[in-house]
Design a protein that fits this description.
The structure is a homotetramer of 468-residue chains.
Chain A: H1 7-14, H2 25-39, H3 59-78, H4 89-92, H5 117-136, H6 143-173, E1 197-200, E2 203-207, H7 222-226, H8 231-234, E3 244-248, E4 251-254, H9 260-268, H10 280-289, E5 297-300, E6 303-308, E7 311-314, H11 326-335, H12 343-354, E8 394-400, E9 426-429, E10 446-448, E11 457-458, E12 462-464
Parallel strand pairs in A: 8-11
Antiparallel strand pairs in A: 1-4, 2-3, 4-12, 5-6, 6-7, 8-9, 9-10
Helix pairs in contact in A: 2-5, 2-6, 3-5, 3-6
């Protein structure tokens, strides 16, 4: 965990299987699990301990919690004779599953120096060995259910890979020594294309996943196992369905993300000082925290700089603006005479622009995901075709997070995974430069409260009507 | 302001004009303004001063703020030579209109013993006299704009009539002397009908107001003035439009509100203690505040009682449950195997059940509005036809407050009236026993944060599918 | 309660008995009680309701709490057949006496519009009538105990007379309308004498009251009653004794209070910006609240002004500085190369300078107390002899509030009067322009936390050594 | 830093010089500095990072801050050509010295994973090498001043040795895994002597240090250097002087500390539930935090246990009670019909009982200090003569922390060391089981706010009068 890892090494370690829908469950398990540890390569023991704010968690906790997830949902119920490594972990590494018992106080995760990083790694290996045993010989186990749970666990691990990076970035940002996660060495930014608009006529559309959720135990049957190789490409979270109709008025959507350069114009035009651009809660938040720029930006004598996972870097006008709240995204859009897209508009646009088959991270070859090793959004390349809909930054939508018509939460603990958060949160779409490529699809619904900024969150504009 | 007022006296004072769409603007102005003061009859000077929580305002402030609204939006710009009575009121009684300048700190409204109640009443009369002058002879004024603004001002005053009552109720609830606003003397509750379901097939519907908003200055032209008598019945807030299409899956909606008796069953079944019934933020709120019953309920030796505007009264099982948060409404619905309706479902149902013409407060003869003098929700009478959709209690929906497709906020200060709150709020529909009858229509969108309970807010259930 | 009262009227109402040590108990009771109501003359009903901060109380509460004190400590135990007017008042108007049961939450005293002012006045009269009965015919009652409790009750009432004024001043200060309690019409300030020093040699001194505390029930015997006329002049609180020896090193003490003019020099010399002048907690407080001047000061275009009970007035350089915290007093002293006196130094100095007999408010004829009607500290008159040790402003000392050697708290509820606060508080000495003249003596120990500023608190300097 | 260290090894490492007044400055420097690192032996890297509450600091921070102290006060001004290792450390490791510039926010010390532990150790060694150079050849340096500063730095380091232990204990106490700092293996507790009283007649006493403080630069002259070997035994902090007279009434003081067994009786007698035993702020604190026992105590099925540096251990009735606040100490004393001693009483008693020469830690052979390796207070051995006045637990006094008569803070940064905290703090005396033996003397004044409990703080009683 101490030697730096080149990008090629990462891809090799991955064995190509992240991109392979035909991967066997165990290989896929090993590949995703080891990627988590690969992401820890640049860390020293001290880096694993800190919780820089209640919303974030120590890296150590991410490593252990994802392991707890497999232990609790797969090994304990399905591997005969399995015994948890340490009984206290049941509480220590339970995030928010009331169904699974008590939880150690979230805001105090950074007060625990023990278990040590080494002990947490031991815990991972302990669980990995038993997962190997479980997956190697499913025997008379309910294969469909196990593979369904496995898929949830792997997607869950991927979510925490991203969170671990965003949390490390936040922690390092508070340190006046400006620690660097990995040096950033991209080619110089190129000039990028003018923002154009894609228009869509009013219509009744189907949105949401067509997949019968593999998420719900009660839906899992062994027939799915017969086609287990395809499990990963078919996966969707419960909250992405049911597929249903929405009537969408004519709209247009921007051909690319908003850049730092455009955002600087907003700032220069006193965007943070003009109440009429802001939602009421947004304006109050701006006043309370004295926001004057995106998170991580600081104005120095030689211009605006930004804390990144590659250290403190000058702001590049061509790069997508990042680490803005919904409030800032919404105010920017208003300033620009536009608005944010609804999640239905976003999904309709992506399905039509990228094609239903192409609208998943694994096929968006030129999109900027975590495996690309930038850990930072990139300017849209002139020749790019994906329009930055996938990767780079999560895109705030105008939609509050709520259930789709006909949605029913899964029974059991996974009922708490998504459904209890359908309140006071806003939908973001498309994944980011910190998201694993195989984790994203066009129906994917991420959600955060409107004021948060430490995720890689940016802006895409929309407008009423098709335009010309 | 000290003599109690019987309901007949109120109706007389009202001159019948609240129910008359043909009322002349000035009459209508006088009628609504004097009703505000009628509502103050039971108060003593001390009652006008207190702000019992930051969400509430002193009665004195409501009286002055609504007056400020007319002064600022109508008299200052449109009555030549008008001078504000006291220059400090511009700041003191501005609620949240940044466009109109600074505001006295909201949470400190209860720290001001001056101006006195008498001075505030003087302020009201000063503005009333000048409004009379303005309305008596519109002369060469832009009549359409003035009448449009008048209508907004009157609807605004009606909103504050309701808020004044809910704020007084909250203040009295904190007083161990149990002050009574007005004694409650209703006939004993009758047994009420079983809860039944109205089913609706999936369909594409139009919802929202057909009225071109009279709210926006830029839309106001003098042609509206030509039919000024009808202005009030045609009024709608900006957020109720544009009229637009939504696809609504098949659903059914309950034939009446949930009663205290039904809610007591939820409580008896440990509804407040079962995490699986609650949204995450709701569960946290329940823990933080130790909620175990609706607001104002207290368990005494001889059973549950509730603080009401008629004093402390035993809970009547037949009465609609009231003063619950969205979280409680949602948890109750989940416990009952149901859910809350979306605002589109609610509006579709009301339009079909009551008929588009009937779905306004003024025609819902047997609905329980503020003029009925109960100030408390009533059991559904056996012979009633309105199904409690209007009046009694505001009904929490499952819909977050957001703009309708194609919505654009009005220019000027009224742009702040509704649109900047489209965030972190939940829609409630239908009006309450504290709402003026002429204020409500089926397209009316009320909104509050999901945790609030001091409004008269209750529960109506919905389910997927038509049933049967 | 609405007509303004001239100073002569006040003195007449007082019947001279405040200054008469020979007053009979009932006369004294009536005189002090009616003075409380006289102080309310300038108020309207709304003014009685507000609690402007948790440290302050509504005027209504002061009126009722002092009444509750007589009811609870005298009438209930000693007047046969007495019944409290309203059972809830036992809790509502108990301040902090755990011995006497539950208390209504202190910070919510301003949320109670009822009982009305009129009802509180009725409560006062109800108790006054019964006190009259009790005092008119002590019969076989334990006279010593009753007269001792009476004396405590009257001193308690006087303390609340002062607090009521400081609380009203604070409330009015938050109101942009600048309400005036009573117009201030003093002669123009005169130039005042240079600050000189009184030196004292090192010595062992007796300090504290020689009075066997009439405060403690267990000390009260009827022999005291035999000389009841003198009761008032002999009274001292429990915390003023026992009389005991302290060794005081040589010191000198300033001949007058620090003036606004001198304090302005401190401000001009960046006194609030120089950390080295401040105690650590003081510096933190200055940063947290952004203090830049005493409480109630505001800088306007035409210079510094101060909110007073006479309205907003320009700062007069000759007047004693007022409404400073201990932190400011201490920082000022450090800036001046001096320090604050210990309470022993203060008491030793006053005893020697004014003489033991003269060191009580009643004999300090030219000191500025509440009956003088200024409600504001006055410049030291050239001919004055008292050196402002009594009246004008409370003088912060360097002494933490603690018990004198051999002190034992009284048994019963009065044990809570003073002793439980001997922690985290600082001693102030000498009384203020809001203190009743008959309330003060040289052994009197007032105490407040070091950060408070809403009392009439000012600065007197001391230094090590006799000087010269 | 990983191998456990036996007590003999510690003493050896110490080279005996901690106990030797004849130690040369460099030896003394090396001995005390290396002892800090010895105390870290049981830690892993993760343990150094956490800040478990704002009052505590990460171990890493203690290691660096004490180093910064030498760098800033000695090397930068006195070692020609010295350059700080890393410029950011000036701010990062400044605790509260405004004179020395900005400080990193105290409450965020636990958010810094970097510098790593290894880097902090490098920093220590860097400074140690330069200190060696400075001390090895004082040459023409102002020896007196340097040696005086050295002594302050070493005493400062010793204070942080104790704080590091108390902070680690607090951090481990929050961890459900109950980490052990060092296993505790004491002989079983013996029965201890009855509590007796030492009586003292009323008298005028001298208290405070006779040492002309070596703390103040302006007092330092080279003549002190002439006897530099004795520097350590003569050291006193500025706040321990000037020596001065106090008149102390007759009193008696307990012959030993209060034990757990005695404290359990207080608890069993509802000590935490009886308001009359508590100071007002204490009672509020008890309610707010729900205190029912000393810090670190927990009631389990098989009795009360306590978190210690040796892990979770059963409560031993014979051991001194520890980790109580002043409020608890005061309430206990009141319950026992006693009181806490004033700091003058404590010092007078110790000087007479132990003898002026013996009243320093280095001569109290059987007192329990940190070098004894228990890290926990011990029952008073039957044959012990010191009465636990030194070591075991800090003893709360009844005295607020204030300056002695004639005290003047030193010029420069050291003026901030003690004097700016003379407010809102209470004096504790005598040192604890976590204090270095050579750090304590009878005039030593420790101070903490009255509510804190994480220091090793306990109870000694006193009473008025000599007793029989």
């Amino acid at each position: 965990m101490t030697s730096p890892t080149s990008r090629s090494a990462i891809i090799e370690a991955d064995g190509g299987c992240l991109n392979s829908p035909a991967s066997r469950p165990l290989q896929r398990y090993q590949s995703i699990r080891s990627w988590t540890e690969t992401l820890c390569d640049p860390l020293i023991a001290e880096d694993y301990v800190v919780q820089s704010m209640p919303d974030a968690s120590p890296a150590k906790w991410h490593l252990a919690h994802t392991t707890w997830f497999f232990e609790t949902l797969l090994l304990v119920p399905h591997l005969p004779g399995y015994r948890p490594l340490e009984s206290q972990y049941k509480v220590l590494f339970n995030s928010y599953y009331n169904t699974l018992g008590e939880q150690f106080t979230r805001s105090q995760r950074g007060l625990l120096s023990r278990p040590s990083v080494a002990e947490v790694i031991d815990y991972r290996h302990h669980v990995d060995q038993h997962m190997q045993a479980l997956l190697a010989d499913l025997g008379e186990s309910p294969q469909g259910e196990i593979l369904a749970l496995l898929e949830v666990g792997l997607n869950h691990e991927q979510q925490h890979q991203e969170l671990m990076l965003t949390d490390l970035k936040h922690m390092f940002s508070l340190n006046p020594l400006h620690p660097v996660y990995r040096p950033y060495s991209a080619a110089p930014s190129e000039a990028i294309a003018e923002l154009a608009w894609h228009g869509f006529e009013e219509n009744l559309h189907w949105i949401g996943t067509p997949v019968e959720s593999s998420f719900d135990d009660s839906n899992a049957d062994d027939s799915i196992a017969a086609d287990s190789n395809a499990a990963d490409s078919n996966f969707a979270y419960d909250n992405e369905g049911p597929r249903h109709r929405v009537f969408v008025e004519a709209f247009r959507i921007a051909s690319r993300l908003i850049t730092n350069g455009e955002y600087l114009e907003f700032m220069a035009d006193d965007g943070y000082g003009r109440h009429e651009l802001w939602l009421s809660d947004g304006w109050a938040t701006v006043q309370e925290h004295g926001w004057r720029a995106p998170l991580y930006w600081r104005q120095e004598e030689d211009g605006w700089k930004s804390h990144t996972l590659g250290g403190l870097r000058p702001i590049h006008p061509e790069e997508p603006v990042c680490h803005v709240s919904l409030y800032e995204a919404d105010a920017f859009a208003r300033w620009k005479g536009a608005r944010l897209p609804s999640e239905a508009e976003w999904e309709v646009a992506v399905a039509q622009l990228l094609g239903p088959g192409a609208a998943v991270g694994e096929t968006a070859d030129d999109a900027n995901f975590v495996e690309d090793g930038f850990y930072h959004p990139r300017p849209l390349a002139a020749e790019a075709t994906h329009g930055q809909f996938l990767g780079d930054v999560w895109e705030w939508t105008a939609s509050a997070y709520s259930s789709y018509p006909g949605y029913r939460p899964p029974a059991g603990p996974l009922g708490e995974y998504n459904s209890k958060f359908m309140n006071n949160q806003t939908i973001l779409r498309g994944g980011s430069c910190a998201t694993p490529r195989s984790h994203i699809r066009s129906t994917y619904r991420n959600f955060f409260p409107p004021h948060i900024r430490w995720q890689f969150s940016g802006i895409r504009l929309a407008q009423d009507g098709m335009g010309r």
